[in-house]
Every structure is written in C-alpha cells, then in structure tokens.
Design brief:
Distance between the termini: 35 Å
Number of helices: 16
Number of strands: 20
Radius of gyration: 24 Å
Oligomer: single chain
Shape: globular
Largest sheet: 8 strands, mixed
Bound molecules: 3-acetylpyridine adenine dinucleotide
Strand content: 15-25%
Length: 539
C-alpha cells in the first residue's frame, strides 16, 4: 500500500493535538493530525452531557500562547459549560486555519518503528498508511470511557448512555424514569441536570464521593478587562506554581490544621468554600497526609452534608469514609441539594450490589428497578487507555503494551525508552491532570517543539530516553507521592477503577512549576539524559 509521507503525525485534535499542529506547522514541517471524532475538541467533543463544565476557571483553562486569542474570546461564566469550551476550541481552529491538516473519523490502529529507516509506519482503521519521522500521541488522559461489565447490559430496551460518549442528538429526560450509575466528577455534574426534568431519578451509588459546592457566576466585561490587564502575572503564576492556576491559588496558612482550634479551622474552610477561592488541600500543610488532620476536614464536610441534605439517611450515605485527598474530589453545583427533591432517590449499591441489567432496568441483590434510561458516569481508562489501544511496536519488535504490562514506564511522561521519536503529550509521569490541563499541555507541546527543532538542527535521526534515566524518573514519581493519601486512593490515578490494570500512580505529583524547571534544565544541558543517534551509532 502507498504510504503518505509526513514529517510529523499527531494523534488527536483536542487542546494538545491542535497546539502541537500549530507549533510544528509554523516551523514548516508537514503534519497530519488524525482524529477519531467527527470534529475538533477531544474530551470536549465527547463529553457533551448536560451539566458538563470544567472546574478550572475558564480564563485560565484556555491557551496562553496568543495574547490576541486570549483577549478576543469572551468567556461567559467563571466555569464555562462544555458548549462554550467547544466553541472556544472551534474558534481557535478557525483562527489558525488548523482544520486542513486534520483527518476526522480516523483511528490510528498501528504504529511500528522501522529501525533501518528510523521512521514510524502508522496505519488507520480506514486503511491509510503513513510514514513519519515524529509520532506524537496527543490522545488525552481521559478519552477511553469505562463501560461497566454488568451481566445483561446489552439486553436493556431503554435508552443507554455513557457521559464520556454522549450522543449528538438531543436527549430528553422529561417524564422518564432515569438511573445514573457513578458519582465521580461526571456523575456529580449530570445528576442535578437530569433531576430537573426527569419523572424520577435513581442514583445508584457504589462509593460516595466528596463534593465541595462550587461558586459559578457570569463574567462581565469589567471582570474580563481586569483579567486582561493582569494576564501576564496570572499566567506566570500558573506556569511556575504547582497546579497550573494563577488566579485562585490563594496562599495557604503554611500551618498544620491542628494549630487552629476546631472553630477557627471550620471557619477558614467555610470561607474558602463561600468565596470559591483556593482549595481545602492547600489551606493547611498536613491535610494531604496526616490522618488526624484529614479527620478534622472530614468532620467539617460531614457537617456540611448534614446541613444541606434534609434526609439523614441519605446524608449519611453521601459521606465518604476515606481521606478527602486520596482521590480527586468534585466541585458540585447544586449536587447535594438535588437529593432534597421529591423525584430523586439515592440507592446504595455497595450494600445491595447490582447483579444484572435486565431488559426493563436494573436488578440488585434485593431489589428490581424499572427504568426508561440508564446513564453510566462510570469514568475512564485514564492516562494509558488511549495509548494502549494502539498497537505500538518499538525497537527490537517490542510492543509498548508488553513494556507497560506492569504499569507505564516513561521518562517525564514525554517519551519511553525503545520508542525513538515517539512523544506523548501529558503522558504518564507528567503533571497532566494534576494541574490545569491546558497549562500542562502547553508546556509539553512547547518542549516537544523545541526538542524537534534541536533534533533537526543537529541532524539527529533517532532520539529516546536512556533506560536508567527513565527508571529513575518512574521511581522518583513513586517516591514523591508515597507520603500522601493520593498514592493509596482507590482512584483512576492508579488505574484502580479498571479491573486487572496494574496499580501504579501515573501522574507526576511534584507540581507543574517544578516539573517545567526539570524539563527546561534537561533541554539546556543538551538532552544528555537521552540517547541521540546521528547515523548508526548512539552518541
Ligand atoms: O469518573 P470517576 P468520572 N458499578 O472514575 C462508579 C475528570 N472530570 O468520569 O467510586 C457501580 O471519577 C465509581 O464508583 P466507585 C476528572 O479528572 C473532570 O466521574 O468506584 N459504580 C464512581 O462513582 C475526574 O476525576 C470534570 O465505587 C461504578 C464513578 O463510577 C475524571 O474526569 C468533570 C461502577 C466513576 O467515577 C473521571 O471522572 C468530569 C460499577 N461497576 C470529569 N464502575 C470537571 O472538570 C464505576 N462506578 C468538573
């Protein structure tokens, strides 16, 4: 089959793929972007369920590379909804004329490294074949929805949806008996929206989740003008701080929560929530790791649940029994309040587990429910899901799937030893979703872009991390996360939500600013931690 030759092949047309395309195209490289979806947007193309929005402020959850772009798109809300985020991505695509380099409805199936030519051969599900020097996976951290494997799932006769693959047609809940399975960030967002119009909504909860009430509001021109004036400073703080945000990163107390009286600590936490500024995790130094500190925060949150949720049995069911910061908690908008509605029931499927899906609904051990619609908000095969679904073969015919069988092994989350010239944007071992994802993406794209410039300038044909450096990085990620609750949580950060997936903490927890410094230092020192092959020998 005839191969189409390009300098770089990018997989995915979300925030990461689009910016990568723009940077490399401006260098004069020939680029092909392949996208499985029917249009641009990545996560924001697929997750179009009612209530979907980002819980990072919109003025920060957007590209910083163009001052003009930054100031011409008017964000309507503090936490803008999915249609507005998608509109922003489409606007960026049109502004920089990116669409002509993207092939939609095309999935990459195979990527095989050719050691003789040092090129990648890439195949798609539509039968195309590409030959490329640089193979770049911009497939996102949360792009493979996890569908639960209930017995009888295909027999259900009603409507069946996953929040992560929401249909394009209008879905109505009016007059319907609806079930939601899953109450992570997606469930917390979709539940209040469905409850507004459904005849009845039953939330099938396995494990409760911490949900902090969020503060959303419309943004007016005065607010936006003020942001534009301060943007340089906000972005600087975002890129050098740990979480990729410059606006809401209020200074913590720098003290243990135990240094305050219970009343003082509760008052401070209530204020943080009331004003929607900062996070409970950064207010005190020990909430991330000390069980006693966590207990105080938990009691505060339990009190909050008791205050909001009228039925005490429901309130008790909504109280998680694990440390707050052992998982990603959700920002909720009327989530807890939704359980006060007459048309909403919370069902505990931890003590009464789901046995099967029937043609008419759901059967648990002790009950049988009838539903017109089931919505699964059951999460994703995070971080490695999309990468491991491509048949990637590197040097010595090694499959990436085999190399990563006991957990992903990558250097800086950017490259993996044995897979020369293959880059991953926000890959495992990078800050990715532990920081504002758009800032993580910009940092990666710019680093890759500079690296490619270096490779081309120095006529380096093959480039990959040294194995010992990769091993050290993987160990470093494991070591720095160890003291924190998050290293043990039953979360997708560790692959704990996917049966059989190795439990390895995947994102880099040391903060975006620190990570960026490390990456920059490596580049400044001539990429000494990488093998660099000019002709046939590594130097
Ligand atoms: O997925 P999740 P998500 N039977 O994995 C339940 C980002 N995000 O899509 O806890 C019954 O967090 C599971 O129960 P349990 C964000 O990074 C961001 O909500 O395992 N239940 C859990 O309740 C987030 O972390 C935003 O007991 C089953 C839920 O499904 C990430 O995406 C918005 C089950 C899955 O929760 C993932 O969030 C949305 C089963 N067989 C998403 N299998 C914002 O920016 C799973 N569950 C706001």
């Amino acid at each position: 089959m005839k191969k189409i030759k390009v300098d770089a092949l990018v997989v995915g047309a979300g925030f990461a793929g689009l910016y990568m395309l723009l940077r490399l195209r401006d260098k004069g490289l020939t680029i092909q972007v392949l996208e499985a979806g029917g249009d641009v947007g990545g996560t924001w193309y697929w997750n179009r369920y009612p209530g979907a929005r980002c819980d990072v402020a919109s003025v920060e959850y957007c590209y910083s590379f163009s001052k003009e772009l930054q100031e011409e798109f008017k964000w309507p809300e503090r936490y803008s909804a999915q249609p507005d985020i998608l509109k922003y991505i489409e606007h960026t695509t049109e502004k920089f004329e990116l669409r002509k380099n993207i092939l939609f409805n095309t999935k990459v199936t195979d990527a095989i490294y050719q050691e003789d030519t040092q090129l990648w051969h890439v195949k798609t599900n539509t039968g195309q074949c590409y030959e490329t020097r640089y193979f770049i996976m911009a497939t996102g951290c949360l792009s493979v929805p996890k569908m639960p494997k209930f017995k009888g799932i295909d027999s259900f006769e009603g409507e069946f949806y996953h929040t992560g693959k929401w249909p394009h047609h209008k879905v109505t809940f009016d007059g319907k008996q609806v079930a939601v399975i899953g109450i992570g960030s997606s469930g917390v967002q979709v539940i209040p929206e469905i409850a507004k119009t459904a005849k009845h909504l039953t939330v099938l909860q396995r494990g409760p989740t911490y949900c902090i009430p969020g503060k959303n509001y419309p943004l007016d021109d005065t607010y936006l003008q003020d942001i534009y004036r301060r943007y340089d400073d906000i972005r600087h703080k975002a890129k050098t701080g740990s979480r990729g945000v410059g606006l809401t990163d209020v200074k913590g107390t720098g003290k243990s929560i135990k240094e305050f009286s219970r009343e003082e600590a509760f008052k401070m936490m209530a204020e943080i929530i009331e004003h929607g500024k900062g996070t409970l995790g950064s207010l005190f130094t020990d909430v991330k790791s000390d069980p006693e500190a966590d207990q105080i925060v938990r009691e505060f949150l339990y009190e909050m649940i008791d205050r909001i949720v009228e039925d005490s049995q429901t309130a008790n069911l909504l109280k998680p029994d694990y440390p707050l910061l052992s998982k990603r908690y959700s920002l909720g908008f009327e989530y807890l309040e939704t359980y006060n509605r007459d048309n909403v029931t919370l069902a505990d499927v931890l003590t009464d587990p789901i046995k099967e899906i029937t043609p008419k609904g759901v059967k648990t051990e002790h009950k049988e429910y009838t539903f017109d619609m089931i919505v699964c908000a059951t999460g994703f095969d995070g971080m490695t899901g999309a990468i491991s679904r491509v048949h990637i073969v590197g040097k010595n015919s090694e499959r990436l799937k085999d190399k990563w069988a006991s957990g992903p092994r990558a250097y800086l989350g950017l490259m993996s030893h044995g897979y020369p010239n293959m880059f991953t944007i926000t890959g495992p071992g990078s800050p990715s979703i532990l920081a504002n994802a758009v800032m993580s993406i910009e940092q990666h794209v710019e680093w890759i872009d500079n690296c490619i410039e270096y490779l081309d300038r120095n006529e380096i044909k093959a480039f990959e991390p040294k194995l010992d450096e990769e091993d050290k990085w993987v160990q470093h990620v494991t070591d720095i996360v160890k003291p924190f609750f998050i290293s043990k949580g039953n979360s997708w950060y560790l692959g704990a939500n996917i049966p059989g997936k190795p439990r390895v903490f995947m994102p880099y927890p040391g903060g975006l600013g620190t990570y960026t410094e490390i990456c920059n230092e490596i580049a400044k020192n001539g990429y000494q931690t990488f093998l660099q092959k000019r002709s046939y020998v590594y130097e």
